[in-house]
């Protein structure tokens, strides 16, 4: 899953994150309350501001819950038991998807 957020920003609003994932902001707020791995900062108004690391963790949660069909409890357990291993696999999958997209782009130009 490719999230279209600018790589040079330090913080993203909940609206930007929700739009990037194609979900409601309420789901992002719910996941924030359910998953300890998410640690968004809050600005002076109390609005959540997500770091690139939070976005990466949200991608992982989205992958587990929405794409692989994990329950919330199952996703929490999976993250706690094998967080490093899961993140490594997820990074590899993302890199392979990027390479595939680049190769398809090159192929279409031939």
Automatic annotation (TrEMBL):
Ranges for domain HTH merR-type: 11-81
Signal sequence region: none
Gene3D superfamilies referenced in this protein's UniProt entry, alphabetically: 1.10.1660.10
Parts forming coiled coils: none
SUPFAM superfamilies: Putative DNA-binding domain
SMART domains recorded: HTH_MERR
PROSITE patterns to which the protein is assigned, alphabetical: HTH_MERR_2
CDD domains documented for this protein: HTH_MlrA-like_sg2
Superkingdom as given in the UniProt entry: Bacteria
Pfam families: MerR_1 (PF13411)
InterPro entries: DNA-bd_dom_put_sf (IPR009061), MerR-type_HTH_dom (IPR000551), MerR_fam (IPR047057)
Keywords recorded for this protein, A-Z: DNA-binding
Protein's name according to its UniProt entry: Transcriptional regulator
Native source organism of the sequence: Flavobacterium ammonificans
